[in-house]
Amino acid sequence: MSTAEIESTSDPADPSGTGQTEKAKESSRLRMSAKGVDVHYGETHAIKDVNLDILEGEVTALIGPSGCGKSTFLRCFNRMNDTIPSCRVTGEITLDGGDIYSPSLDVVQLRARVGMVFQKPNPFPKSIYDNVAYGPRIHGVASSRAEFDEIVERSLVRAGLWEEVKDRLISPATALSGGQQQRLCIARAIAVEPEVILMDEPCSALDPIATAKIEELIFELRDRFAIAIVTHNMQQAARVSQRTAFFHLGTLVEYGATDEIFTNPRETKTSDYITGRYG
Amino acid sequence: MTEMNGPQTHADPAENRWSSPKLTRHLRKRQRAEGIFKWCGAAAIAFALSSLAFLLFSTVLSGAGAFVATEIQLDVDLTGAPFNQLAAPNDLAAPGRQAALDAEAATALLKEADYRSLVKDSLRALFPEAKGRKDKRALGTLVSRGAAGELEDAVLADRSLVGQTVSIWLPADDEIDLFRKSDGEGTERLGDQKVKWIDELESQGRLRSVLNMAFLTSGDSREPELAGIWGALVGSFWTLLVTLLIVLPLGLAAAIYLEEFAVKNRWTEIIEVNINNLAAVPSIVFGILGLAFFLGTLDLPRSAPLVGGLTLSLMTLPTIIITGRVSIQAVAPSIRQAALGIGASPLQVVAHHVLPVAMPGILTGTIIGMARALGETAPLLMIGMVAFVVDVPSGPTDAATALPVQIFLWSDSPERAFAEKTAGAILVLLAFLIVMNGSAVALRRRFEKRGS
């Protein structure tokens, strides 16, 4: 593929802090943490006793074959699984030390702090402006028109979409191309200034060029947000992430620094998957 | 056989197999089946269309006459008994309280006049040869029974007519009207004498056909030439208004709750099945319910559009809930997820994202439900909206009737002229239904364009 991708593969891996992990430093950067998480869909045991951390300034990739539960697990972090009646989550998941499943926590506010980008671009059938301004509006973050304008511009700039849409902010978002729509969805998520962004296969519906743009964007957003990304594409995981978790049949098989997992996996299952033996 | 052998000599066995007589026969059979199906479908559509065309044609043919009325020109002598007591019309216009009092007295005086005999006298003046009692009575039936009332209205409206002989157009009797419209049919029914009079009036230019304003602007009447649909239309309007005000908020709330908030369990399943069953309940059953509950228990006024609207809303509610739920279900789940994922509360998801997308479908369902309510007769019969109501209702609690009930009432009337009124009212009802269904289609098109 292109040189940009090769750069982004080598670039984050070397100078980033993953190699030199000091315990203290790591705990200060800890944003979300899952301890002993089990998920049941009715009778099905979808996620079995998983422990995983999401750190600030890093991209954590969740990989694994289809149906291994990586998307289900990701959706536990902003309690999107609550919308599925048969779904039951046990164990502890914390955001900045606070249990997100505690009854005192407001799930609406949690989802403002933990944003999400979905597999298929899903802009609202409204204007580009309204899409980005929607989050700040419902959370009461901004009040004046000028504040909204500023948030919309800042979010679109950060999502790398501003130059393409600045002249047609009032045109419908559904008229954008797939890749632009997905970047708009990212802009919409970051407009409410979340602490963590969850991405559920954000590039699986996009062509390679749009995918490359999203990957660049993830690389830039990494500094400000803790990012967890589910992906089917192992090259993508290798390119964008600093940590990788490999799931198989609902269990977390291996979790560690991305370059280690891809170059020197501890488990044979992991190496089999990475080398394309199955999956 | 040679054809069959031909491909066999070729090396390609596949071609051989596909052109074998067995498969060729099979192919022909499939093609024939397809042809027969297409032909049957086209025939069914043609039959339906021609039936519709015939229905419309015959209704228009028999109903068009309802919009035309016959009038007779009479020279009425307003110089006689009560009128000569009245001061000259110029004095009436004098200003001041005294003048107002005078005007009141004058009105009372004008109301006392015997307009019926005035009309009769003017007819006799036209045909002095009518001497016998029987002939005189027959002469009197040339004009409508409402003619005297029309004359009174004309005099009260324009006092300057008083004191002179005025030439005025008055409604003719329905029999005359029918006779003229049917090009001379029904001579036996009218009798030779009347036919002679009519011919004479016609030759004097004293008969004319005008737009039947009474049909469009007045309430019901025992006289076909005076009966109108306005009262029934207004009654239908009030009834539908009550229905809409109840059905739209209730149906929408129920659909949203069941679709977006209710926990899916055995109870909601039972409710769902029952709503579907209610949509199939015969409408007269809702009429009985309305009779027992709204009139019996709540003691609401009989024959009122309020009760009619309540009863029709019971009937329409299941339909609205079902179409509302279908429209809400049709909203892409990805939009709901997007809104939830950004931190919208369930109510915000519904209000900001689901409803705007589902609204065209909901409105279409509502309009179609209202169109069904507009055409409904049976439940209204049960709650007494079948009464003979002359006055145009001025509110939802006045006694009223509805358009389809009016059609039913007229179709039951013995007077022949009501047949064309019935068809005319059916035309008006059809026009409203077409407009309502057309607006439903237009609404959906507009929203679809905007959504994409």
Please outline the major beta sheet of chain A: 6 strands, mixed
Q: Could you tell me the strand content of chain B as a percent range?
A: under 5%
Q: Quick one: overall form of chain B?
A: extended
Q: How many DSSP H or I helices of chain A?
A: 12
Query: Helicity level of chain B, as a percent range?
Result: 55-70%
Mean pLDDT of chain B: 85
Classify the beta-strand content of chain A into a percent band.
15-25%
Global mean pLDDT of chain A:
85
Report Rg of chain A.
18 Å
Helix-strand sequence of chain B: HHHEHHHHHEHHHEHHHHHHHHHH
- The stretches of 5 or more residues of chain A where confidence is low (pLDDT under 50) are 1-21
Biggest interface between chains? A-B, 26 and 21 residues
The SS-based structural class of chain B is mainly alpha
Given as residue ranges, the uncertain stretches of chain B (5+ residues, pLDDT < 50) are 1-8
The biggest beta sheet of chain B reads: 3 strands, antiparallel
Give the strand tally of chain B. 3
Based on secondary structure, the structural category of chain A is alpha/beta
Number of strands of chain A: 10
Care to describe what's here?
The complex is a heterodimer of chains A (279) and B (452). With 279 residues, chain A is an alpha/beta fold. Helices cover 39% and strands 24% of the residues of chain A. Chain A has a 6-stranded mixed sheet with strand order 6-7-8-3-9-10, sandwiched between helices. In chain A, a hairpin with a 2-residue loop joins strand 9 and strand 10. Chain A is globular. Chain B is mainly alpha-helical and 452 residues long. Chain B has a 3-stranded antiparallel sheet. The longest helix of chain B is centred in the first third of the chain and has 43 residues, at 21-63. The interface between A and B is medium-sized, with 26 and 21 residues.
